[in-house]
Amino acid sequence: MPQRWNFDAAANFWRQHANADPESVWDRFIAAEAFILDHAPGTAAEAELLCEVLLEQGLDARGDGRDRRALERLQTFVRGLHSTDSVVA
User: pTM score, two decimals?
Assistant: First the structure.
C-alpha cells in the first residue's frame, strides 16, 4: 500500500535520506521527493525545501551554471524570509 504523504512527513523523510544512500528506501524516497516537487509552497520554509530538492537534482540546463546560481540565490533569499518570519512571530 503506498504511503500517504503530508508535507512535513515527506520533508523529514527526504532530508533524512537525501545525503545518505537512499537505495534501501528508493521507492519511498522518490515518492517523498515527487510529493515535495508537486506541492505548492505555502510558507517560506516550504519554498526553501523546494529549492533544496531542485538543487539536489543538479540543475544543468545551462552550460554556464547561471540557472543553478540563480536558484541558490533564491534559496538564500527564501531562507532569509523564513528567519525574518521566526523573529516576527
Answer: 0.72
Q: In angstroms, what CA-CA distances link 25 with 13, 29, 31? A: 10, 6, 10
**27 and 10 both lie in a single domain:** yes
Look up residue 63 and give its three cell numbers.
552550460
What cell numbers appear for 87 in the block?
523573529
Contact 57, 29 (CB under 8 A): no
Torsion of CA 74, 62, 55, 31, to 10 degrees: 120
Q: Supply the pLDDT for residue 15.
A: 93
Domain match, 63 and 89 both: yes
Is residue 35 within 8 A of residue 10, CB to CB? The reply is yes
